[in-house]
Amino acid sequence: MTNETFSKVNEQAEKMFMGPTRDYAKLAMDYAEKMIDAQMEAAKTYTDIGMKQARAALEIKDTEALKAYAEEQQKVAKEMSERVKGDAEKVVAMNQDFVNEARKLVESNVKTASEAATAQTK
Length: 122
Hints:
Elements: H1 3-58, H2 63-121
Helix pairs in contact: 1-2
C-alpha cells in the first residue's frame, strides 16, 4: 500500500468513524455537564430552603409562633411545588435539546456516509 492509499483510508476513517464519535462524545459531555450543574443548583436551593425551615422550627416558642410557622409552611410548600415544576421543565428542555442535537449529528453522518458510498461506487 502506498502513502496515498493510507491517507485515503485515514481520511475515510476520520469522516466515517472518528469525527462522528468525537462529535457525539462532545455533545454527551456538554449535556452531562449541564445536567450536573442543574442538579447541583437544585440540590443547593432545596437544601437552603430545608435549612431555613428547620431554623424557623427551632424558633417556635409558643402557640402563636407555631401558628405562624404552620402558615409559612403552606407558602413554602406552594413555592417548592412551583420550583420543582420549573426544574422538571428545565430538565425536559435540556433533554429535548440533546435529542435534537443528536438527531442532527446522525443526519449529518448519514449524509456524509451516503456521499462517501456514492463516491466509492463511481
